[in-house]
Protein 1
Amino acid sequence: MVYKAKDTRLGRNVALKFLPDDISQDPQAIERFRREARAASSLNHPNICTIHDIGEFEREGETLKHRIARKPIDISELLEIGIQIASGLDDAHSKGVVHRDVKPANIFLVERGQAKMLDFGLAKLAQKKLRVGETVGVSAMETVGPGEENLTSPGSSMGTVAYMSPEQALGRELDARSDLFSFGAVLYEMAAGATPFPGTTTAAIFDGILHISPESPSKSNSRLPAQLDLIILKALEKDSDFRYQTATELKTDLRRLKRSLESTGRA
């Protein structure tokens, strides 16, 4: 449960996050809660929500989920949000943190027009910090911490179904490239107004993620430039070796497209 509150000491709005009563005595649930705080508090980036204490963080604005539902997102706003989130993911990945639940509901748009990543409750802390530009490998993303292996059973899938990567859907070990697939699904939804792998059941969505190539977003939104199609579809490559390897690469392509559109007056 999350409640909006006022920090009377510093005069800022925050959110207080609590475990429900029925699981507040569950040691694993408590450890997951602490893991969220550990993961997020290790990060200091303008596009990652600040943790002030366990379960307390800045929050003022609306989620990207609500923003998508409210009205179509134009290309300039899409690129600006995308660049900011890619920047936040780049910082998290460079510190060895894989979010594992990137989705519109976990991206918050504050009143200043800034995008922030929320909810590192499923995040994984890595044993090895990744160097900038390093290709992410499974061996670099091993979980650490006492009892950590008991928080996620081997072979289980974590995250939100519609935004899962293929490796996540199969319950495999994840690295930062899984976040980039999920982020690709978010970009797709911002661009096309629908998720890339629709379905009325979990099985149907999983089948799409694993076996079906999504249509180009421009099929649903003819105003989109062809370059954006290429960026989003590369992020949604099912084989992680053909996907973006780092958030830096994805961010660079988004920035390059933004510059190109601005120079021609299209953004």
Protein 2
Amino acid sequence: MHNTLFDKGKQLATIASRSKETYHKLLPVLNYMIANIQNVGEEELKGAAASYLDLTVADGKNTINNPQGILPSTRKWGEGGNCTKRKRSGVETVVTGNKRHNSTCDLCKGIGHNKANCAAAKQIGKRLTKTTWNWKLIQTVLVLDETKSPADVDPCVAKDAIGIQVVGKVSVLNKEVYKANIILRGLSTKDCQPMYFDHDTVARWASEGQSSSHYVFLHGN
């Protein structure tokens, strides 16, 4: 028996030493089996191994004798678990560079920054986000000397707009309406007449600053 186990152990050692991934897969199983070897029953030992690997069958029995109906493992890596992310060599890191420095801005499509640090977006105005969304702030925009009717108020924002630049507000039937330019992808201003939106239209379109594709800029802020 000793010779048989010794030969099997050498086979496992040969297989596991070929790669770190296989080594890290096998070592915890062997440690678990050694810790539970005092339970000498064959079925009990197999059940312990199946329990460690979270191998369960549809009928609820933990066993590795019956591979039929095995469900996916429910075990998740906890704190201190073996890392599964591929390690990058020093040469690869130098060649590919840091992901943060190669990031692409969602607004201007420039490289090396994100929308939070986009200089082009700041030229358009203050971009409202979930944390800065405040109607009192929006209402600080310039009051325009214009006369508009309810027919001038647009019910929705242009389909190709990724943002609106609020440049001021006017009063329509004692209701504040916001005048805005349409901002296209790449932060270019659409060549069209300004549009007029009420409070509900802007809030719904931008999800009150929570949208990841519709942005509100306050001109002059």
Protein 3
Amino acid sequence: MVGNLYLGGAQPSAEDKDALVLPGFSPGIELVTTGTEGEGGRAYLSFVMPAAGVSVMRAMVTTEILGKARLSGVAYENPDGTALQLDRDYLGKARGPGNPTVGPFEGIGQGEVRLRVW
């Protein structure tokens, strides 16, 4: 674990290297849904991203960085056995190899964010 962002009182584990902790910052996370799934319903994730979290340097998550699972001793890899590289975010946007954005969404910047998640 390295370079994670902890907000609103969340605390990193002792193993998380270079964690950025902003205990007084509340991201105000909210999931807003419209309609129902059968009627083409949509869900939006709204939150506020702090300026400090955007500038922290981190590496792309790969098989090499993840190492092996604690219980099975098996490496994290793709279903076909090739090395894993998390080069796309939750929404399919390409991640920069030099300094990907913290969290599941790439390049969201700072301030208020509203993303359609389904």
